[in-house]
Amino acid sequence: MPSPASFAVATIFATMVAGHGIMSVPKAEFDPTVMRTTYVATIQANFPGKFNDSPDKNVAAFNKAFRDQQATGFKTLRAMLDPQGPDCGYSKLDVPAKPIPSDGNVVWQNPDSGEGFVPSHTIWLDNTRVFQNDDCATNFAEKPAAHLPVDFASCIGSCTIRFYWIALHQHLWQVYSTSSLQLCRSTNANDAME
């Protein structure tokens, strides 16, 4: 579980909107009329600090500013981002349930460019945060896909997985959200992820 200092902070830095990536396991399905790696909204940079520096400095500035405002502002990044854009971003909500990954990992990747994992983000199962890392680019540097360990124990029967991140490389922050609408515990040992 993350330390209080890193509670619910998620940031990414990439130079192209199409370079941000997707959750591929469990497989999120997307509205075919929208580029699956596009942001769902922009918000004005609303914390003090400089956010047009190097990715490392931008992440440090955001993490500090987010921690500093938590006592009187947003307790989690999810609370900050949920009101922005459509629920679950552009992922489709009317799809069959996916099995919980048997290895306990959520996979993030950019299948379009093959780039490695650049964001840090937060993952929730229903209302339980199950993954958080402030520096995924360093801590999950696998290419072209990163395997994020998630404790799925809180998913009893079925649950919704939500994946949040925010890009800070300009004065308008880009909001990203995706979901694999429902997960369910498989009763068949032969079930496999797509």
Could you characterize what this model shows?
By secondary structure, the protein is α+β, with helices and mostly antiparallel strands. The chain has one domain. It is 12% helix and 27% strand. It contains three helices and nine strands; from the N terminus they run E-E-H-H-E-E-E-E-H-E-E-E. Strands 2, 3, 5, 6, 8 and 9 form a six-stranded mixed sheet that branches. The two termini are 29 Å apart. Keywords: Signal.
Radius of gyration: 16 Å
Major β-sheet profile: 6 strands, mixed
Q: Kindly report how far apart the N and C termini lie.
A: 29 Å
Shape: globular
* Poorly predicted sequence stretches spanning 5 or more consecutive residues: 1-19, 187-194
Q: How many DSSP helices?
A: 3
Strand composition percent: 25-35%
Average of per-residue pLDDT values:
76
Which series of helices and strands comes N to C? EEHHEEEEHEEE
Helical content (DSSP H or I, runs of 4+): 10-25%
Class of secondary structure makeup = alpha+beta
In the residues, how many domains can be counted?
Answer: 1
How many β strands by DSSP? 9
